[in-house]
Amino acid sequence: MTSYALYLGCTIPARQPNYELSSRKALERLNIELVELDKTTCCAPPPIESVDLKSSLAIAAYNVCLAEEQDLDIVTLCNGCFQSLAKANSLLKQDIHLKQEINEILSRVGMEFHGNKEVKHYLQVLHQDVGQTSILKSVVKPLNGLRVASFYGCHLIRPSTLLQFDDAERPRILDELVEATGAESIEYWHKLQCCGGLLRGHADDLALEMAKDKIVNISNAKADCVVTVCPFCFIALDIGQFQINKQLPANYEIPVLHYPELLCLALGVKPKEVAIENRRIKADNFLKKIDR
C-alpha cells in the first residue's frame, strides 16, 4: 500500500469537510493510505507572497518539513495549498542560497528543509500513481451518459514551470479522470477562465460577474454538473449560482461537485456517505440521472 502525508489546509476542514470525506473514501478503495500530519499551519497562500515572499516560503516549507519527518511525500486537496507548498518545494530545491535563508528562519522552531520529498495534488496521485486503468477496473457504477463540465481552477496549473502539473494551456488530467468514471468531460467556452473565487470579499460584484460568465457557458454546454478540485472554485460556482438566481432573476441549478465525490459515486459509495446533499445547489436531479 502506498502512503502519503495528508495536508488539509484551512478552508476544507472549516467549510468543506465533505471534500475531505470523499477524498479519504475514494483513496481507501484504491489502496492508498493517508497519514495525518500533526502541527500543520496555514500554507501561506498566494496573496501572502505579495506581502512577504520569504515569510510565505518559510511557512510553506515548514509544512513540507513535517512530511519529511514522516519520510512521506505530501498530498494536498486544495489548489491554493498545492501551489504554495509545491512552489516553495521547487524554489528551495533549485536555489541553495534561498534554501539557506529559509532554513535560518526555520531553525528558530527547530526545523530544517531538506528537499527530499515531493508535493503532489490529489489528482496527480490518482492520475500518476493509481492510474486510469486501475480506476476503470475499480468502477462498479459507471456514470455513463453524464455530461460533466470539468474546471481546473487557476492555482492548480500556474505558474506551470514551477508546479509542472499539466499543460497550462490544454490541461487533460482532470478530464481524463472524469472519463475514468464513465462520464463525458465536455468542452465549453472559457473553460480555463478564472471563476473569481479569490475576489470574493474584495470585489464582490466583479467576482459574481466572473462566476456568472462560467455558469452561463457551462449551462449553454448542457452540463449535468460541474466538477472542480478547488474549495474556492466550489464556493464561487455553488453559492455564486444561488446569488445569481436571486439577482437576475434566473434559475441555474447545476450542482457543483468535488472530483472525489464524483469518483466515490462511480466506486459504489452511496451519496449520503459523502454528503452529496451538503451544497447550496441541490444535486437531486443529477442523482436521479445517475440512478437510471
Distance between the termini: 35 Å
Radius of gyration: 19 Å
Strand content: 5-15%
Question: What is the CATH topology assignment of the largest domain?
Answer: Rossmann fold
Low confidence ranges: none
Annotation field: number of helices: 14
CATH class of the largest domain: Alpha Beta
Secondary structure category: alpha/beta
Major sheet attributes: 4 strands, parallel
Series of H and E elements: EHHEHHEHHEHHEHHEHEHEHH
CATH architecture assignment of the largest domain: 3-Layer(aba) Sandwich
The counted number of beta strands is: 8
Q: Largest sheet, order of strands side by side? A: 2-1-3-4
Tell me the overall shape: globular
Can you tell me the number of structural domains?
2
What percentage of residues falls in helices of 4 or more residues?
A: 40-55%
How does this structure look, described?
The chain has 292 residues and is of the alpha/beta class. The chain folds into two domains: 2-122, Glutathione S-transferase Yfyf (Class Pi), Chain A, domain 2, CATH 1.20.1050; 141-290, Rossmann fold (3-Layer(aba) Sandwich), CATH 3.40.50.11810. The protein is built from 14 helices and eight strands. Strands 2-1-3-4 form a four-stranded parallel β-sheet, with helices on both faces. The radius of gyration is 19 Å and the shape is globular. The mean pLDDT is 94.
Summary, kept brief:
With 292 residues, the protein is α/β, with parallel strands linked by helices. The chain has helices at residues 11-15, 17-29, 46-49, 53-69, 79-94, 96-106, 122-130, 132-138, 160-163, 173-179, 204-220, 231-247, 259-266, 284-290; strands at 2-7, 32-36, 74-76, 119-121, 147-151, 184-185, 225-228, 256-258.
